[in-house]
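Example record

Each entry pairs one chain with its bound ligand, fe (ii) ion.
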Amino acid sequence: MTLAARLFHLSDIHFGVEDRGALAWFEEAVARERPDAVICTGDLTQRAKTSEYAAAAEWFRRLGVPAVVEPGNHDMPYFNPVERFRTPFRRFGKLAGMIGSELELEHVAVITLRTTVSAQWRWPWSDGVVRAKALEEALEELTRLRGDRRFKIVACHHPLSGPSLTGHNPTKRGHSALQALVEAGADAVLSGHVHDAFDITHKIAGRRVRMIGSGTMSERLRGTPPSYNVLHYDLVHGLKVENRQFG
Ligand SMILES: [Fe+2]
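Structure tokens for the complex follow.
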């Protein structure tokens, strides 16, 4: 097997209610295996507090490998409605500025898609929405990479299409966005939000696309223990996903 890239995909750390044992276990794996990058698909914090962002920044700095982060619904101000509506991603943006929100490796390109909104015409506001501008930005990136043979990963917080979500609305315009992304060259979509891992293959426009969800690294467990995914990408066999559970 010719391994072209190894990526660690984690999600929903929720600093503030993070599982410290699980994070230490993750750190050890990063130190031992030195992945090419770490991708975090949102909900880095529990309430978007300055102290939670500071803890997240310090933790990612300590990992010492390239990382990409995308915000989740918990990453917008919760106690400050003015800031939530005027500049919902200011605090997150500061962190992303330190860590990164795009990544290009020799064999893999990672782009982000915003599915988190500060408010919407349905309840709860925490559910996913793909707005036209967010999709346009992701499609522009994929268009720029057209003809590029690298494996193209889109990272977002909310699953775009499936699995069936107990207690969540489906992501608004998620399925049509997925179609557009695949037509523009996306090979896989990574997400979080549901706190349980999944790996689904969709066939769209004659192409196969992987929808890969990572579990949580927080104490907010649903059906499974804390976990993260390891994405092994090799040029002959493509992408293999390994879900590692803590404990
Ligand atoms: Fe979420």
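The two ends are 29 Å apart (CA to CA).
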